[in-house]
Specification:
Length: 165
Amino acid sequence: MSRVDGVAAYVGIGSNLDDPEAQVRRAIAAFASIPETCFVRASRLFRTAPWGRTDQPAFVNAVAEIATRLAPRALLDALLAIERAQGRHRDGSRWGPRTIDLDLLLYGDAVIDEPGLAIPHSHLAERAFVLLPLADLDPALRVPGHGRISELLRNVDTSGETPLP
């Protein structure tokens, strides 16, 4: 499958446990195993301050662009399977430490609000750890209902975010 055959989707990737850089890179490599999906590119990796709960190690975050023919829910299910394969156990707690976190941020220009699936991803416009990697890929990218990544990035504090070499 080529990039032009599918919908452009963006996936947020984060880890702060068990060698976070390796966890993020492993998740990026695993996108190749998703049926009817083609990995397009990934942002640089960023070391980021924890969001929500600050009593935990810093995160490593990135964003990947993929092209997919999967429906949004099926793509989310594939991402959750990658999380499980990397040792993620969702216990209902929010914003805590994790081996890997994969969030479906954008799916073309879709706006979806269903139980367990919100696109654009909730809080995307408020999170520097998502906006910086998205800007690394495409600062002119539009987030439905919010505007361009470059505009959103001006409204968040990026002081706790550092690109990794």
